[in-house]
TrEMBL record:
Protein name: Glycosyltransferase
Transferase in keyword set: yes
Organism, as annotated: Agromyces luteolus
InterPro entries cross-referenced by the UniProt entry: Glycosyltransferase_28, UDP_glucos_trans
Signal peptide region: none
Length: 431
């Protein structure tokens, strides 16, 4: 049996997809990953085969830096980072304006390249990142059955009256200007219309018999796999979803790090901090988080990413600070986590029963933060407005989570441990 995994050339996308594929690998099946060269090391570390498939102009093997990208992508990243400093609406507007070139890069060429790989391998099962739109064009046009993996909050695949790029819910700390929000809606509607036109043009070139779709962002494969805990999705929205499974999380195995194990062996409570591969550039916010942790008096494990550790200020001797840390291992022992609200951070924390302080900057992070808040699994704050004292108060709140919320979080983690995401994906595709 052969599983084909299709992923953009970004570590944050490939890691959960590759983890899902371990359900096939551990049964002795063949796993082939189609992705770009930057993440070849990750494919090799999992013991998979790789086929070259570039799905976008940028890439990220782990920690991203604008200067290491092609000129157009580097300029786009710098613009994005500047927008995050202006606030939520400015960031969402910037991302909407960038969306056409970001998501539909060489759609016909990439769709045909995907088909060539499928024709060569004749895989028994296929899983593909939902945001790999050009690859999905190839799969859908050829009628190739596949699992469509939504990484991030489920609103990455809009349903009902949702509009891609506009958060359907906001955390309580955010109060976006109504006129600015309406401007964002108008912009996202225009982008959706243009994106759909591009999708339909590409699909027609690939298949002259293609029937135009009304909203390409709402298109999906025959089976949608949400890499997300079902406990964070309300019943009203769940009723609108296509044929699907909730995976909970794709908590990967990590190589043992002797220094990390020695640090953990001290046995004292700690908070884990990470802003992921992109948003770790926001050293100003990381510095405020570090100050908050000093105010609370709790030790910390901080993944600084692209931020210089010197920006954190005086680091207590009992802290663990590195550019990159084994996140899953540390979350397994952490008492709290402070995150930007990325999919891996949120799902892996909840899978470990760790309450969250979420500081959302962009895209679906706002909806995800609102969901964490509504479930009682953490606190959300505005990263640009929260002071060190605000952050300290939030950290204290999650360290002392109410008993009922603590019990539900523990039950969610136990359910994921009993049925891990890779096993749910394997069962769903094998059915």
């Amino acid at each position: 049996m052969t599983l084909l995994v299709i992923s953009p050339d970004y570590a944050s996308h490939l890691l959960p997809l590759a983890t899902l594929a371990t359900a096939w690998r551990d049964r002795g099946e063949r796993v082939v990953v189609a992705t770009g060269p930057a993440t070849a090391g990750i494919v090799e570390a999992f013991g998979f085969e790789r086929r070259d498939l570039r799905l976008g102009r940028g890439s990220n093997p782990g920690v991203i830096a604008a200067g290491e990208q092609p000129p157009d992508e580097g300029a786009s990243l710098r613009g994005f980072f500047r927008a995050t400093e202006e606030g939520a609406l400015a960031t969402l507007r910037y991302q909407a304006e960038e969306r056409l070139t970001d998501l539909m890069w060489d759609p016909v060429g990439r769709a045909r390249a995907t088909r060539r790989i499928v024709d060569d391998l004749v895989p028994d099962h296929v899983i593909v990142d939902h945001l790999a739109f050009s690859a999905r064009l190839g799969l859908l046009g050829a009628g190739t059955s596949h699992g469509d993996v939504v990484l991030g909050h489920p609103t990455a695949l809009p349903v009902g009256d949702e509009l891609y790029g506009v958060p359907p819910a906001w955390p309580s700390a955010f109060d976006p200007d109504p006129s600015g929000l309406e401007d964002l809606r108008r912009l996202c509607r225009r982008v959706s219309e243009r994106f759909t036109e591009e999708w339909n043009r590409a699909a027609t070139e690939l298949d002259p018999g293609h029937r135009p779709v009304e909203d390409a962002f709402a298109e999906h494969g025959p089976l949608v796999l949400y890499n997300y805990p079902t406990e964070l999705v309300d019943d009203a929205r769940r009723r609108l979803l296509p044929t699907h499974r909730f995976l909970g999380s794709a908590r990967r195995s990590e190589a043992e790090d002797a220094d990390v194990e020695a640090w953990l062996a001290q046995g004292r409570p700690f908070a884990y901090v990470s802003f992921g591969s992109f948003l770790s550039v926001r050293g100003d916010v990381l510095a405020r988080v570090a100050e908050a942790l000093r105010l609370v008096g709790v030790r910390a494990a901080v993944a600084t990413g692209s931020t210089d550790a010197a920006e954190l200020g005086a680091v207590p001797s009992d802290w663990l600070v590195r550019p990159y840390l084994p996140q899953v291992r540390l979350l397994a022992a952490a008492s709290a986590a402070v995150t930007h609200g990325g999919n891996n951070s949120v799902t892996e924390a909840i899978g470990a029963g760790v309450p969250l302080v979420v500081l959302p900057f962009s895209t679906d992070q706002f909806a995800g933060a609102a969901a964490v808040e509504a479930a009682g699994f953490g606190v959300a704050l505005d990263p640009n407005a929260a002071t060190a004292r605000d952050l300290a108060d939030a950290i204290r709140r999650v360290l002392d989570l109410p008993v009922s919320d603590r019990a539900r979080l523990d039950a969610t983690a136990a359910a994921q441990a009993a049925r891990p995401g890779p096993e749910v994906a394997f069962e769903a595709l094998s059915a």
